[in-house]
Amino acid sequence: MYLKSIEIQGFKSFANKIKFEFHDGITGIVGPNGSGKSNVADAVRWVLGEQKIKQLRGSKMEDVIFSGTEMRKPLGFAFVAITLDNSDKKLPIDYDEVTVSRRLFRSGESEYMINGTVCRLKDVHELFYDTGIGKEGYSIIGQGQIDKILSGKPEERRELFDEAAGIVKFKRRKNETLKK
Ligand code: ATP
Ligand code: MG
């Protein structure tokens, strides 16, 4: 499984639709300060279901929608889609390619999709449990996160091992069953 592409439109500094395509090996994103490098990582966090606006460096969720510049009017929605190669079926879904998208309007209305079908945030979370990719996974390591892991509480560190061991989904299901 690997990340094939990220499509962004109206998210933060990306007013125009843009598609990043990734190939084998390592890809670096370079650019001057403020050019939007971190916004690409924010876009990935966001499409994976990030609900905490602080994690996305904003103060309210609407802040992820392109807010305009001197030359350009603000936009009405933000859209991000990531496409993953799933030919090894690491994601529990019977498709060789999986596209997850999220759209948010200024009204607050929002929508997640998996391969073009509207779904719940929960479905997005479940798709990525135990893959290390989910928003709680370790596929995106932000500034300061290593320190947090090293100095974190044992229970927090345990979560990282649970994810790596592939037992998060069982723990979540057990907790849900116990709640019922
Ligand atoms: P650095 O090298 O300093 O880390 P960077 O390339 O990571 O910079 P980002 O933090 O990704 O830069 O981008 C910051 C830019 O994104 C700022 O110019 C900011 O105005 C712009 N930006 C953030 N949110 C929005 C928004 N909602 N609408 C328009 N522009 C936005
Ligand atoms: Mg940055």
UniProtKB/TrEMBL annotation:
<comment type="function">
    <text>Required for chromosome condensation and partitioning.</text>
</comment>
<protein>
    <recommendedName>
        <fullName>Chromosome partition protein Smc</fullName>
    </recommendedName>
</protein>
<feature type="binding site">
    <location>
        <begin position="32"/>
        <end position="39"/>
    </location>
    <ligand>
        <name>ATP</name>
    </ligand>
</feature>
<comment type="similarity">
    <text>Belongs to the SMC family.</text>
</comment>
<comment type="subunit">
    <text>Homodimer.</text>
</comment>
